[in-house]
């Protein structure tokens, strides 16, 4: 094979490789759960690519993948209650980006919207809501507090096309002094409840004793009435309680005599 043929073959291979490279840059694949934000010479196009294979102009257009699946952010910080107690919190937020808002969000914020928008909005919403409740109410009305924080957060980040799905208060923690005061209050309430229960028990026992005494007095009165109306009632009571055995007696001589053994006929 002469040199001309070799050169032709090399040129052909190079051309095929170049064509293959160009064709490869003409297509892009948008992953599942994502949208493709199209950039033409760096400018953001309004329309985005859905999941799947799409054609783009090589060297002119670029596609940025925006995640539209449910994502989670967990953050912590401090806030103040209505009665100026310091609260340390840990919260978790589940959210997603609307497909139609992907281009605008990328254009205005970029892909780091979690750090730039969501976390500051969470902190601001928590501080705004906790300032409306006392520290004790933050404990007893935790569900209501969480719902209000979620509502405030949704208003702040909703304009960017970010939807809050779930807002969870993982933990609210208070100062040692406040925790000690809460524990002392609970102890006092428990002692008061115990004293109330003891008083109720004493009253019940007293009523039972009164009832028992009234029953005994009534019984005595019935016996007295029976004695007055029938003198034989005493004999009836005596014989109704006799077990059928005659008593044994001690004679003058010290001999024990069973009255039952005495035969009157002898």
Brief synopsis:
The protein is 50% helix and 26% strand. It is an alpha+beta fold.
Protein model, in words:
By secondary structure, the chain is of the alpha+beta class. It is built from seven helices and ten strands. The chain has helices at 3-25, 102-108, 113-130, 135-140, 142-158, 176-229, 233-240, and strands spanning 27-30, 34-40, 43-49, 52-55, 61-67, 71-80, 86-97, 162-173, 248-250, 256-258. The mean pLDDT is 82.
Helix percent reads: 40-55%
Question: Strand count, sense and closure of the main sheet?
Answer: 3 strands, antiparallel
How far is the first residue's CA from the last residue's CA?
A: 165 Å
Classification by helices and strands: alpha+beta
Broad shape: elongated
Number of strands: 10
Rg for CA atoms: 48 Å
Please indicate the percent range of residues in DSSP E strands (runs of 2 or more).
25-35%
Unreliable spans:
none
If strands are numbered along the chain, what order do they take across the biggest sheet? 3-2-5
Mean pLDDT: 82
User: How large is the count of helical segments?
Assistant: 7
Order of helices and strands: HEEEEEEEHHHHEHHEE
